[in-house]
Amino acid sequence: MAAFQRSRVRGASLLLALAFLISACGAGATTAPIQTLAATPTVAPTLAPTATPAPAFPATITDDEGTAVTIAAEPQKIVALTPAATGTLFAIGAGNRVVGKVEDITPYPPAADNVPVVAKVAAVDIEKIVSFRTDLVIAGGLGFTPPAAITQLRNLHIPVIVLYANSIAQALTGIKAVGAATGRLAEATTLTASMQADVDRLSALTASLPEPKTFYEIDATTDIYTIPADSLWSDMLMRAGANPVTTGSSYVISLEQVIAANPEVILLGDGGYTKPADVIARPGWSGIKAVVDKKIFPVDDTLVTRPGPRLVEGLKSLIAALHPEVAL
Amino acid sequence: MPTHVGILAPRPHRWAALPVARRPVVVAAIGIGLLAVALVAGIAAGSVAIAPGDTLGILGRRLLGLNIVPTWSVAEETIVMDLRLPRVLTAMVVGGGLAVAGAAFQGILRNPLADPYVLGTASGAALGAAVAVIIPVRTLILQFGLIHALAFGGALVSVFVVYRLSRVGASAPMTSLLLTGYAVGSLLAAGLAMAMYLSGTGLRQIFSYLLGGFEASSWGRLAVAAPLIALASLAILLRARSLNGMLLGEEAASHLGIDVRRERAILMALASLATAAAVAISGLIGFVGLVAPHVTRLLVGPNARIVLPLAALLGASLMVGADLVARLLGEIPVGVVTAVIGAPFFLAVLRRARSGYEL
User: How far is CA A194 from the centre of its chain?
Assistant: First the structure.
């Protein structure tokens, strides 16, 4: 028993490191295809046949987990449990109604600086959320927000919308869902239309260019972590004109696989901690083409992986690293 | 909690001067006092400050039906009634249940290192919970999800398997049980490691289950788990005579007219039931089930009839207190707190015990 617990703790601490890492990057990717769960914001049909704008509430939003969430009236006290939700709420003009947010190591936007923190990575302060008389919570799916906290909030009759994104399209649908839930659907639609236009324009710029085989490193402190296929990361990389090295569904990749893939470019999502010189110095990495050509670039992971209003910025940063010749 | 150490483990000469027959009464009084303090503090304190008068008003109005004019907000009432109250009560029931189960396992196995998790309940529950996280089903029945159901089932099934396997070998029943428990536990731990490896983004959910905690407590869950834990604990208490007999050894017990095999099986089933219900709603919280029975025995002697209820009191107070500390420090894992509070407390009592202590 003792041995079981010892080994469990040791293994668990390593695994926890990964969990923090993945969660710190935003609810990014999944192990399973999710096409069936795409968010479909549906505004309840209105009875008033008129020239005045249709009342947006009560509204029923189907979130990314397939839960139909009914919101009785326009929410006035909103809690954002993902950094992307904080960004989105402020971007669509609902920022003044945000009463609480998740702790964020790279806070955005600055306007949200004074919003009280009601959740840290693993712990959501339900008492605080209740004490604010919160009437809408935007939470992260795929385990980003602890499922137990979501259940508890719903038991307390606080509407919770759970969002995540494994593609740019899903990120945009999520932004519209936030808009529909907060009475800001028009603003959200304007935002997503402009983001879609930017994404289309940027990917057109890279469409005819050669696609360098690209290894996106999430972390390599112990094991090497990279991106799964069918994730927001891989979608962003492909739109930026890269051919990403992916793992299938897991995050872990062996050094042998990295060497065999022989990427032409290495992007460091952990650029805050790992420098290109560190990669060059790693034993076994010296033969990789990107290392030989010194094509190793840090990127801001929070721009690339948060399904919020700054995805276009993230896409631009990827293109700048992959195709510096392209004028943005 | 250093002051509590001073209260519960007085200087040897004073404790030794106390007539042995009076000790349980004193310990019970202190235990009830501790539990009351822990419960009150647990309801009064939290991340949101609520005036003590308002807290009392909410409790009086909602629990006693007093006609008090609310001076508090609806949100404060929700926090006290739907968050804090079910939480402290869950911690109390789980702490008490684990202490009784621990005392029972220590008696059945005549092993001082036995705890409620020793025969595979912990690894079975952990594997069940991990599998539940991997299976993409989100149904909730009576506020119970797949994770609770599979943790409960996993704990019971693994004990049953350990029990059946241990009866096959030729070695002495207790040694066989312990070794089988260890072997099955190791196998399940391997399954758990594999499940964690495969779980991807569900990893954090599995990990937080392994650490245990009460932040997800609710009336619905308490209403299902509390009767199970209470009934199993009561049934164990009614079999205190068998436990006392087993402490004398198998042969002596059968001379006393105790059907050792049968009683051992029944006690194991009851203790496992209490443990499974506890781990299903609160995850794997260590230490309380190991230490509470020992501290009680050190203070009042080995008679199970006295040890079981007092251990339950002590376990309940320790758990409620530990959960409060965990909450005030920003929802740190309660298992960390039980160990940090419990280990020095245990050592202090152990060092002050005058006569040799043996299970």
Answer: 19
pLDDT interval class at B147 (50, 70, 90): confident
Q: How far is B310 from chain A (nearest CA, A)?
A: 26
| B203: amino acid identity, one letter | L
Tell me A119's DSSP state. E
Average pLDDT over residues A218-243: 91
- B241-281: per-residue pLDDT in tens? 999 988 888 778 888 888 888 888 899 999 999 999 999 88
φ/ψ of residue A324, rounded to 5 = -60, -20
Give the residue from A131, A132, A162 with the most B CB atoms within 10 Å of its CB, the best one to mutate: A131
Banded pLDDT at B142 (limits 50, 70, 90): low
pLDDT at A113 over 80: yes
Are A156 and B207 within 8 A, CB to CB?
Answer: no
| Closest listed residue to residue A121, CA positions, set A140, A135, A137 | A140
Q: Which residue of B has its CA nearest to A248?
A: B200
Residues 6+ apart with CB under 8 A from A212: A242, A243, A263, A264, A265, A295, A322
Out of A28-32, B49-53, B203-207, which region has the weakest mean confidence (pLDDT)? A28-32
Interchain contact, A7 vs B189, CB within 8 Å: yes
For residue range B302-312, list pLDDT tens digits in order.
899 999 999 99
Half-sphere exposure of A293 (CA within 13 A, CB side): 12
Mean pLDDT of B61-86: 86
What is residue B257's predicted lDDT score, i.e. its pLDDT?
84
The answer to whether residue A121 scores a pLDDT higher than 90 is: no
Name chain B contacts of A132, Cβ cutoff 8 Å: 75
Q: Which residue of chain B comes nearest to A33, CA vs CA?
A: B136
Nearest C-alpha neighbor of B319 from the set B331, B334, B304: B334
pTM over 0.90: no
Given B182, B205, B218, which is nearest A143 (Cβ)?
B205
Search chain B and give the residue with CA nearest A225.
Answer: B200
Q: Is A150 exposed, middle or buried (0-12, 13-18, 19+ CB in 10 A)?
A: buried
- In B30-69, the residues whose Cβ lies within 8 Å of chain A are 46-48
What is the ipTM score, two decimals?
0.71
| pLDDT (average), residues A211-238 | 91
A123 has a chain B CB within 8 A of its CB? yes
Q: Which of A65, A146, A155 sits opposite B208 (nearest CB)?
A: A146
User: Which one, of B240, B317, B334, lies nearest residue B281 by Cα?
Assistant: B334
Q: Which residues are registered as beta bridge partners of A101? A: A80, A117
User: Closest residue of A to B134, CA-based?
Assistant: A31
Residues of chain B positioned with their CB less than 8 A from the CB of A148: 205, 208, 215-216
- Average pLDDT value over all residues in chain A: 83
C-alpha span between A31 and A252 (Å, rounded): 12
Q: Considering only alpha carbons, which residue of chain B is nearest residue A125? A: B47
Give the minimum alpha-carbon distance from B79 to chain A in angstroms, rounded to a whole number: 6
Residue A262: the pLDDT is 93
Instruction: Identify the band that residue B173 occupies on the pLDDT scale cut at 50, 70 and 90.
Output: confident
Written as one letter, the residue type at A223 is D
d(CA A160, CA A158): 6
Shortest CA gap B41–chain A (Å):
16
